[in-house]
Structure formats: C-alpha cells, structure tokens
Amino acid sequence: MERLPYQATPLAAAYAGIRLPVAALLDNVRSMYNVGAFFRTADGVGLERLYLSGIAAHPPQRAIAKTALGAEERVPWDYAWDPMPFLRHLRAVGYEIAAVETSLHSVDLFDWKPRFPVCVVFGHEVEGIRTEVAAAADCAVRIPMLGAKHSLNVATAGGVVLYELLRKYRTLEGDAHEDACHRPSSRRPGFRG
Known about the structure:
CATH architecture: 3-Layer(aba) Sandwich
CATH topology: Alpha/beta knot
Number of domains: 1
Largest sheet: 7 strands, parallel
Mean pLDDT: 88
Helix content: 25-40%
Order of helices and strands: EHEHEHEEEHEH
Strand order of the largest sheet: 3-2-1-6-4-7-5
Strand content: 15-25%
C-alpha cells in the first residue's frame, strides 16, 4: 500500500480551508514527552495556538522534539508561569474556556456543543487542573471511560478532544452553537470530582 500525505487524498477535500478556532492550555503538564505529543497533535488538527504554563516545559527541549518531530517549530505557542493572564486574554477575545476534567459537573465530550472559538485546558498528569484554573473555565468536559481506569494519559486525552473538536467544527449547522455546558447548573468552581 502506498503511503500518501492526507492532503493528497480525496478525503482531504472536506477539510480544505478549515482553520480550527481552538487553542489549548497545558498547565503543569510535567512530561516533556506529553508536551511534545501535544505539539504533534496540534499540528495535525491545525490548532491556533498552544499555551504552556507552570511546570510545563517549552521548546527547545530534546524530549519535546523527540515526540513532536518538528511540530514544535510549526505550531504557534506561548509560555508563562501563571496561566491566568492567558485565560483572561482568551475570554476577552471571545473564547469559551473548557476544562478537560473528570467531575460530577462535567459534560460528556460527545454531548458537548462548544461555542467556537474554544480553549481547552489540560492539567497535571496526576493532580489534574489546578482549582483556580478550573474555576476560570466556563465548563468541564470529560471523556467517557468505560473500563476500570478513570482517565487517559494527558497526551492521549488531548488527541481525543482536539480531533472531536475538529469533527464538530467541520459539521456545525444552524443552531448547533448552543452549548450544553451553559446550563445554569454547569458552572461550578473547582471541577475536580
């Protein structure tokens, strides 16, 4: 079987001209390999920008480059120790902020109807998203987990969420912009469950 870049296949026509209006914030993601994997996925979906904060490493780092395979040079990114200025800026320019977190108040990823543009927030591999960062979000979104484990590796979760956002953005129609996250009972500080 011949390997062709996706853009060279007839299937790519459905994505021609799409620029995904999505950003991602990695706050305190400790593994450089996970950060590198996010860069590679970000390139794959056409992410607008990757924000890195806290202990999350940023390029240039050998471990990031090992998994990013050059995507760290193509994807726009910013780093700051404190993530809150990023979130305030994104909110000011109209982004919905969604914490990807397991909680009692989370909306199922497949039921979520995001209001684009969106910034999805991912946190520490073990501790999750910091309370103050989660409290700044408009909603929490969770990936369905049917097995014994309650969460995915953060880079894997990023791939699932970002590609689901690409799918949803491509198929937006009519009043599909209403978001299940915006029910009055959905906004809760500290989404950890």
